[in-house]
Amino acid sequence: MTRQNIGRPVRASSFVGRRQETAEVKRLVAAHRLVSLTGTGGVGKTRLVLHAVPRLARAFADGVHIVQLAGVRDASLVPLALIEALNIRDVSGRSPVRVLVDHLQDRESLLVLDNCEHLADACARLVETLLAETAAVRVLATSRHPLDVTSQHVLEVQPLATPTPGEPLPPKPALEYPALALFADRAAAVLPGFSLTTANQDAVAALCRRLDGLPLAIELAAVRMRALGVQQLLERLDRRYRLLADSTGGDDTLARHRTLRAAVDWSHDLCTREEQTVWARASAFAGSFDLGAAEEVCAGPGLDRDELVDAVAGLVDKSLLVRDGDAVHARYRMLESIRQYGLDRLREDGAGAEEAARRRVRDWCLDFVEECEERWFGPDQPELVRRLHAESDLIRSAFEFCLNTPGELRAGLKLAGHLWFFWFATGALVEGRYWLERLLAAAPEPSVARARALWALALMLLSQGNAVRAAPLVEEARELALRLGDEAEMAHTFFGRGGALLISGDYTRARAVYEEALALPPREGESMSLVGFKYVELAHVLAIQGEFDRAMALCEEFRQVCLTYGEQWIHSYLLRILAFAEWAKGDQVAARVHARECLRLKRAVGDVFGIGMTLELLAAVNAREGEGRSAAVLLGAAKRIWQDAHVALDRTPSHGPVRTEAEDGARALLGDGFKCAYREGLELTSDHAVAYALGERESAPRPVLDSPLTRRETEVAELIAEGLTNQQIADRLVVALRTAEGHVERILSKLGFTSRSQVAVWAQTRRATRS
């Protein structure tokens, strides 16, 4: 299955030119494991990559993943940015780099690392590790300078071709000169009906030469066609650039840098005062932002909120801000060259101007996250998850600011403590631990923020099965909260205290902790989600101990609260415990209804681990109902989730009997057919597995012959059956000839065959079983 995953989708205007470069990128990626696109700022490296990616996707069975690094300042965050782009949910507790290596070990993926120049050393180290320790991963990087990796192949992206001075233009110059075509396309966007004509093409050609064929400079100039004619535009540019050639000598790179700087200078001069103010202040955003964030960070002295909205619109019109998102969720971002220029202007306002702007970004993040936590126990959870993912670059920049700025550590601890629910609910445990551990180590002073961060870290560790480390942390949090007199934070520690006992198998003591917790009324400021978890975990223990009726009663009691508030996350946990109790009592009809309802809610909030456990519970229900094949498929799908997350299932002893009975039952029903159905489940993504479990897909893939081949090797075997040669297979899959040859050799070896004709017969027989 081929996937394209863009961590933060980028909406781009129409793509002009670069046909040869696109083909060259495809060729190089097929032939080399590391390809770096280099070139000066504004030359179009990112646009070229984004244009090439869809044409590369077919060659990578496990997807193309774009990692935008422009908003990442701290080199240590590069692995985390990749983990998020790859949507890895890992509970193993290993280092981020080891998580990446193990996840990508046998995958055929293309990693696109965009804007590496400010993180060149960190990117080089990580790329070297990934290429050395994985079999089929390839990397496509963009950077102003090559990465320091010996195995890379460098393609320098040149400016767009422009006519030579004095050279007669051909009848259709836009077809021959991409710079002219780009100008015409962007000018038509602001001046409908504009096109190259014999009357204006010489001036356009001269203008594009003056701009050195730099796409960003050409786009900024074309925007001015709303107010100026081509000749007027050229005359004004000519006056501004007249000294440029003399000041740069023969250094093309320096000349292009100064050309772009002059183009951006000119765009800045043509902005209103309000637009210039927003440009400078918004450059403190490390990544995209929405209008609400812009209002909080950019409005202030000399700029009220009404003026800000008009200024944002003006910057979008001038191509200085790029509008992303959709009609409902508008977001804005700056190209890196534009953002760096804005930072330079911001620093001109004084030594502390940049720090003040970054502090405003941090304050916005803190207010935003606190609001999300307050709204979390309610109907907006899927939307809040979407928003928090969208703001991840800004939140990371806020953490960096707090860690690197004197006096800001407590604010960082507070920010991390309020994010516990997001990291916990979505399985982003690697990132949660990363920030909590750094901040707790840097800020040992007693505070309420530290107490919360301690139990939040304990929850991350418990989710990773590490009760040994979690237990003392949650006790420290409890003692600190009691010493500071904060009853809400003390109450929050019950979940972690009981959880450490529960995953250790000490059900009696865990039950006592949760009984004590529920005996106390909720404290002012106590999280309703954590109140709900007291019900969830006590019901869990009771169900394990065979007290099914009381467990079900507790679930139903707090379910009513969830239904009243429209809450989904805690509700899904209650439904799973309820379904487990019903399954254990023998009511398979009710268990299936509640397990499926649980799955719908867990899908809505992205609870991957909850999905895995519920798939196994449904498998157990199906096995008892005599539905062996669906049980085996669901077990395989759950296994894929555990493999991807590196979950050690023996860390959850309470769940073991469900999985064991499901597997034993399915094997008894299917006999030798179990392995085939299980393997089909392994091929399902989490989304497809949920759809299958809910009956939204008519079936899982039809039974196939048991196969030792990987997905890509199976695809190659199908192409052999079509009669394709190795070279034709390489061309079809956009891979190097030696890569195709290697696939064929491994197929012959795994299947124990000596000829391609045997592979063809095998593939045809396999295909027949699917029809």
Overall pLDDT:
87
The proportion of residues in beta strands is: under 5%
Structural class of the helix and strand makeup?
A: mainly alpha
Largest sheet: 6 strands, parallel
Number of helices: 39
**Overall outline:** globular
pLDDT < 50 stretches:
1-12, 243-248, 700-705
The helicity comes to: 55-70%
Number of strands: 8
Strand order of the largest sheet: 1-3-4-5-2-6
Distance between the termini: 19 Å
CA gyration radius, whole angstroms = 29 Å
Description:
The protein has 771 residues and is mostly helical. The chain has 39 helices and eight strands. The protein has a six-stranded parallel β-sheet, sandwiched between helices. A two-stranded antiparallel ribbon has the order 7-8. The longest helix has 24 residues.
Question: Could you give the topology of this structure?
Answer:
Layout: E1 4-6, H1 19-31, E2 34-38, H2 45-56, E3 64-68, H3 78-85, H4 96-104, E4 110-114, H5 120-133, E5 138-143, E6 153-156, H6 173-176, H7 178-190, H8 201-210, H9 215-222, H10 230-241, H11 244-248, H12 252-269, H13 273-282, H14 291-298, H15 305-317, E7 322-325, E8 330-333, H16 336-347, H17 353-376, H18 381-390, H19 392-404, H20 409-417, H21 420-426, H22 429-442, H23 448-463, H24 467-484, H25 487-503, H26 507-519, H27 528-544, H28 548-565, H29 569-585, H30 588-605, H31 608-624, H32 628-645, H33 656-670, H34 673-682, H35 686-693, H36 711-721, H37 726-733, H38 737-751, H39 756-770
Parallel strand pairs: 1-3, 2-5, 2-6, 3-4, 4-5
Antiparallel strand pairs: 7-8
Helix pairs in contact: 1-2, 3-4, 4-5, 7-8, 7-9, 8-10, 9-12, 13-15, 13-16, 14-15, 14-17, 17-19, 19-20, 20-22, 20-23, 22-23, 23-24, 23-25, 24-25, 25-26, 25-27, 26-27, 27-28, 27-29, 28-29, 29-30, 29-31, 30-31, 31-32, 31-33, 31-35, 32-33, 32-34, 32-35, 36-38, 36-39, 37-38
